[in-house]
Amino acid sequence: MTNGGNARGFTLLEVLIGVVVLSIGMLGVAALLINSLQNSGSAIFRTRAVMFAEDMADRIRANSAAGASYVATTATTGVDGNCSDTDTTDATDCTSQALALHDIFQWKTRLAAPRTGLPAGDGSISRVPIAGSTLATYTITVQWSEKDGNDYDYVMTFQAT
Predict the structure, then answer these.
(1) Distance (Å, rounded) from C-alpha 85 to C-alpha 18?
(2) pLDDT tens, 81-103?
(3) Each residue of 41-74: b (16+ CB within 10 Å) or e?
């Protein structure tokens, strides 16, 4: 059955092939969207880890007299020494060492906060004095776990007095 070369329109087979090709393309776009959403969540955690490490570095620099009091393992929790003002109470007078323990307490609490922290968030701080100098090298490590079951960490090293 030929129509003498005047055929117009599409056959059913051509339409079905077009729909299949379009469907495969749409599945690819959906997969890319899902992948980008997963990676953006991971990027948020990495950004938070950097901010937490920078926050602790600023606290160490601001309270340089405490020095070794800022050393903390993942098991260290710090102490809520009431060293900062709140809406209802004024801060007590704290020594440099007490302020360092209070800073560690606040930092660890914020790391593990459900909404604004990191999943299974924790951190550690090490301090190595530099021979012949008043400076020390601090290493701040922020750790967390993501939904993929892997553990991640961000390590920041700096020198301060």
Answers:
(1) 67
(2) 888 777 777 667 789 999 999 99
(3) eeeebeebbeebbebbbebbeebeebbebbbbee
Tokens 């961000």 sit at which residue?
154
Phi, psi of 128 (to 5 degrees): -125, 115
User: Which residue's entry shows tokens 């609490």?
Assistant: 109
Hey, what are 88's tokens? 């209802």
Distances (CA, A) of 85 to 88, 92, 93: 8, 8, 11
Determine if the pTM surpasses 0.85: no
Q: Hey, what long-range contacts does 122-130 have (CB within 8 A, 24 or more apart)?
A: 122/74, 123/52, 123/53, 123/56, 123/72, 123/74, 124/72, 124/73, 124/74, 124/76, 125/56, 125/60, 125/70, 125/71, 125/72, 126/71, 127/67, 127/68, 127/70, 127/71, 130/159
Q: Report whether pLDDT(105) > 90.
A: yes
90, burial (CB in 10 Å: exposed 0-12, middle 13-18, buried 19+): exposed
Tell me which DSSP letter residue 91 carries: P
Query: For the segment 24-57, what is each residue's pLDDT rounded down to a tens digit?
Result: 999 999 999 988 887 777 889 999 999 999 999 9
